[in-house]
Automatic annotation (TrEMBL):
<dbReference type="InterPro" id="IPR036390">
    <property type="entry name" value="WH_DNA-bd_sf"/>
</dbReference>
<keyword id="KW-0804">Transcription</keyword>
<feature type="domain" description="E2F/DP family winged-helix DNA-binding">
    <location>
        <begin position="113"/>
        <end position="182"/>
    </location>
</feature>
<dbReference type="GO" id="GO:0002040">
    <property type="term" value="P:sprouting angiogenesis"/>
</dbReference>
<feature type="region of interest" description="Disordered">
    <location>
        <begin position="399"/>
        <end position="430"/>
    </location>
</feature>
<feature type="compositionally biased region" description="Low complexity">
    <location>
        <begin position="410"/>
        <end position="423"/>
    </location>
</feature>
<keyword id="KW-0131">Cell cycle</keyword>
<dbReference type="GO" id="GO:0045935">
    <property type="term" value="P:positive regulation of nucleobase-containing compound metabolic process"/>
</dbReference>
<feature type="compositionally biased region" description="Polar residues">
    <location>
        <begin position="782"/>
        <end position="793"/>
    </location>
</feature>
<dbReference type="GO" id="GO:0090575">
    <property type="term" value="C:RNA polymerase II transcription regulator complex"/>
</dbReference>
<dbReference type="InterPro" id="IPR003316">
    <property type="entry name" value="E2F_WHTH_DNA-bd_dom"/>
</dbReference>
<keyword id="KW-0805">Transcription regulation</keyword>
<dbReference type="GO" id="GO:0000981">
    <property type="term" value="F:DNA-binding transcription factor activity, RNA polymerase II-specific"/>
</dbReference>
<dbReference type="GO" id="GO:0045892">
    <property type="term" value="P:negative regulation of DNA-templated transcription"/>
</dbReference>
<dbReference type="InterPro" id="IPR015633">
    <property type="entry name" value="E2F"/>
</dbReference>
<keyword id="KW-0238">DNA-binding</keyword>
<feature type="region of interest" description="Disordered">
    <location>
        <begin position="774"/>
        <end position="801"/>
    </location>
</feature>
DNA sequence: ACCTCCCGCCATAGG
DNA sequence: CCTATGGCGGGAGGT
């Protein structure tokens, strides 16, 4: 292991030579410029500390002295290094003196751990590059230089760069060389991540996890629901999400398929973007990221490692000012968590190519699209080689063409460059959607334990209340006004997304196409795409899941896709040729599966619908093709079915909810599945389904496009809920004595409703309805701190978000500082 | 005593 | 084989 720490003598210097040299060698000058902290000072300390076991730091010294560590060794070490070191260092010929000098003189100089934190390092790194670099210039980053200048080991730089890369703030050019993009792509990236996060039902996963925890706390007894219940997680194995323009540059040298840190980073960000109170606890994040259907025995070590990584990532994200640390209080005590303080992301702005010409440069676009697709298809695992599947390409093309047609229309999205967005959050909180999702989530629960029910119901109620009719659209953002984005057209119809079965992917609204990727472990992959619908067939036994999305417009494609799928079910990857006939087979097969599948069982007992769902769709991953075809998707999207499904709001994001919402049992079993059986290829949501879930409908309606205020009042919701029998009349108000009326379950998730309000951008305030007022702090508008979280020690609260309302009751979240 | 998370060993990918 | 990357987890600083 590392003997270095304990044994300064022998090994150490070996080690020392290694790193120290690199670091020491670095030029201080640059450093000083960048960081005022202590350029020169810094260096020396480093040297000191370099000696592994025996730091020259005051404390270390003390220890050393006490322990009577051999000084000669240290000196030796220093000698070795110093020669290489900076000139100033050389000056001090007497190493011993020097060492003393530093240790004594600059107490502060000693790089306390904090000073060496990745966050700080990242900050230094960021200082070197502008947020919005002139694209004309070449903003290359040489890792060597950076590490030297920042005086850190390379390894650390990789950590930073990897995260930045995950946000597409940099992209790799070649070995040792990266290009700095700054925040030009940030919004677009975040949008994409959000979308993907939604598609992955991260929100639901989070809730699932929380619920589980909760359950565990209370009763261990309830493991009942069948084994199925618990652990299956939706978790999917995502691969690195790329942006449309970025892949090119990076592509050439794309190394490791793996990119775990990158992927983790993206997932982590997704969690924020998807969760309603944009607060994510490390614990939850780790679980989700670990993702597998681990059977509750979270590998301790694995978990710990994940946490470590998350801290690393969090530090970088913090430096980017995208998140900040907070603590969420729970029964157990506080838990470390992070809150998103970055820009709000719109659901889906049509990603118009930021590239110079708007014109559909066919060739270019297509190419990019393809590229993208293929890239996305690569599972991180790498084993399955899916690489450019012909069908995919085809699909892409088709989509493209469709899109073109559609886009040509006047309504086509204006080119709003997402790139610029960074500074101001143009986004709108799509509260409605989220609320709806939450409500639904909550609703499904009821059948379960009473306890939970209670809690949940309470929450639900609250949430419902909270749900403001706000129409996200209010947003002043020019772009929005101009271009409603794809969704808009669709948005015309009242939304029914609720009706969508869980199987359906949320993304429909987004109008994004996807490639479906099954986790290798699950079985085979398949690919399909369709903005519209996704059908998932799963054999529970195998846990094999398939998602198929159907696109009315691109049937042909679908068929092809299906064809492949047909085999995939049984089989393995293969590049099957396509037969249209196969699709049918597939269908049948899927039907058969369904019949046997647990779903049926679930019908009987309404419990755990969610679980069932989860089970059904273990780990399927959809890769959005949207980027590829920036515009295209919409076209597809517009089929009637979609329209029906999608929420109407143009700018709004409401529709996104749909996917997120867990469907109630009855709904799923009764309505959705049947539908699937019938026509996989052309699935349409039966209108009736809507009726089935009144609550959901209510929610969705709220989202109605133009009128924020229209949404049903909370009372209405409650009413509805009550009628449904999901909640008892009294439930709505505080279930939780401690928290008070609004009180929510301590867990973060519960908090969410509130925070939502807080999160709302000012612009939208007008939209905010009375419900919000409810939450408002008596004091009046103030900074918005999420309920759950208290602001940083600095007390700085979100400036960035600028929410005006403070939640009345706070969940107890304390700032880290406090704690 | 737990929370953070730095450090750097060492396996891999890439060349 | 050598270098660039980066997974990983020990264990130490912080609170």
């Amino acid at each position: 292991l590392n003997n270095q720490s304990e044994n300064p003598s022998s090994e150490p210097h070996k080690l020392m030579l290694k790193t120290p040299l690199k670091q020491a060698a670095t030029s201080n000058s640059v450093l000083s410029e960048i960081q005022n902290q202590a350029g020169s000072l810094l260096t020396p300390p480093k040297l000191n500390e370099t000696s592994p076991g025996d730091p020259w730091t005051p404390t270390a010294n003390l220890k050393i002295l006490i322990s009577a560590a051999s000084p000669e060794i240290r000196n030796r070490e220093q000698k070795k290094r110093w020669p290489d070191g900076p000139s100033e260092v050389l000056e001090a010929k007497n190493y011993l003196h020097v060492s003393f000098y530093f240790s004594l003189t600059n107490c502060k100089s000693q790089p306390s751990r904090k000073e060496k934190s990745l966050g700080l390092l990242c900050h230094k790194f960021l200082v070197r590059y502008p947020n919005f670099p002139n694209t004309a210039e070449n903003n290359e980053i040489c890792l060597d230089e950076v590490s030297e200048e920042l005086n850190v080991e390379r390894r650390r730089i990789y950590d930073i760069v990897n995260v930045l890369e995950s946000l597409h703030m940099v992209s790799r050019l070649a070995k040792n060389r990266y290009v700095w993009h700054g925040r030009h792509n940030l919004n677009k990236t975040l949008q994409t991540l959000k979308k993907v996060g939604e598609e992955n039902k991260y929100k639901q996963q989070i809730q699932l996890i929380k619920r589980r925890e909760y359950e565990q706390e209370f009763e261990l007894e309830d493991e009942k629901t069948g084994m199925v219940t618990t652990h299956t997680s939706l978790n999917t194995d995502l691969c690195f999400v790329e942006l449309p323009g970025m892949e090119f540059r990076a592509a050439s040298v794309n190394s490791r398929k793996d990119k775990s840190l990158r992927v983790m980073s993206q997932k982590f960000v997704m969690l924020f973007l998807v969760s309603t109170p944009q607060i994510v606890s490390l614990e939850v994040a780790a679980k989700i990221l670990i993702g597998e259907d681990h059977v509750e025995d979270l590998d301790k070590s694995k978990f710990k490692t994940k946490i470590r990584r998350l801290y690393d990532i969090a530090n970088v994200l913090s430096s980017l000012e995208l998140i900040k640390k907070v603590h969420v209080k729970e029964e157990r005590g506080r838990k470390p968590a992070f809150k998103w303080i970055g820009p709000h992301i719109l659901p889906y702005t049509n990603p118009v190519p930021t590239t110079t010409t708007i014109v559909p440069s066919h060739s270019v676009e297509c190419k990019s699209a393809k590229e993208q697709c293929s890239k996305n298809l690569f599972p991180s695992r790498g084993k399955q080689s899916f690489t450019r599947h012909p069908s995919l390409m085809k699909l892409v093309k088709t989509i493209e063409s469709d899109r073109r047609k559609i886009h040509s229309a006047p309504s086509s999205p204006t080119k709003k460059s997402t790139t610029d967005s960074d500074p101001n959050p143009s986004s709108f909180p799509s509260k409605m959607a989220q609320l709806a999702a939450i409500c639904k989530e909550q609703l499904e629960e009821p059948s379960r334990q009473l306890k939970k029910m209670k809690m949940k119901l309470t929450q639900t109620t609250m949430q419902c209340k909270l749900a403001s009719p706000v129409k996200s659209q209010a947003e002043p953002v020019p772009s929005s006004s101009q271009t409603p984005s794809l969704v808009e057209p669709l948005g015309v119809l009242p939304v029914i997304h609720n009706s969508m079965s869980p199987a359906m992917l949320p993304h429909a609204y987004s109008g994004v196409s996807y490639a479906v990727y099954l986790h290798p472990s699950q079985g085979q992959t398949m690919t399909t795409y369709s903005p519209t619908f996704t059908l998932q067939c799963v054999s529970c036994a195998n846990m094999t899941g398939i998602k198929t999305s159907l696109d009315a417009n691109s049937k042909a494609l679908l068929n092809d896709a299906v064809t492949e799928d047909g085999n995939f079910l049984i089989a393995k990857e293969k590049e099957v040729t396509k037969n249209d006939n196969i699709s049918e087979k597939c269908l049948k097969r899927s039907q058969a599966l369904l019949e046997n599948s647990p779903i049926k069982k679930y019908k009987g007992n309404e419990k755990n619908l969610e679980d069932a769902l989860v089970t059904l769709f273990p780990s399927v991953y959809l890769i959005p093709l949207a980027h590829c075809t920036q515009l295209g998707n919409e076209a597809v999207f517009y089929s009637k079915e979609k329209a029906a499904m999608c929420s109407s709001e143009p700018g709004t994001y409401s529709s996104s909810i749909a996917g997120l919402l867990p469907v109630t049992t009855s709904e799923v079993t009764a309505v959705n599945f049947p539908a699937f059986h019938i026509t996989p290829l052309k699935l349409m949501v039966p209108p009736s389904s809507v009726a089935t879930v009144p609550v959901a409908n209510g929610v969705s309606f709220n989202s109605s496009p133009d009128n924020p205020s229209q949404s049903p009042s909370s009372s209405l919701r409650n009413f509805t809920l009550q009628h449904l029998g999901l909640i008892s009349p009294g439930m709505q108000v505080s279930a939780n004595p401690i928290l008070g009326p609004a009180s929510v379950h301590p867990e973060t998730e519960h908090v969410s409703p509130i925070s939502e309000n807080s999160t709302v951008p000012e612009t939208s305030e007008m939209c905010q309805t009375t419900t919000e007022n409810f939450f408002r702090t008596p004091g009046g508008p103030t900074k918005n701190s999420s309920l759950a979280v208290s602001s940083d020690s600095k007390g700085v609260d979100e400036i960035s978000q600028g929410t005006k309302f403070v939640p009345q009751r706070k969940l107890e979240v304390s700032t880290e500082a406090k704690l």
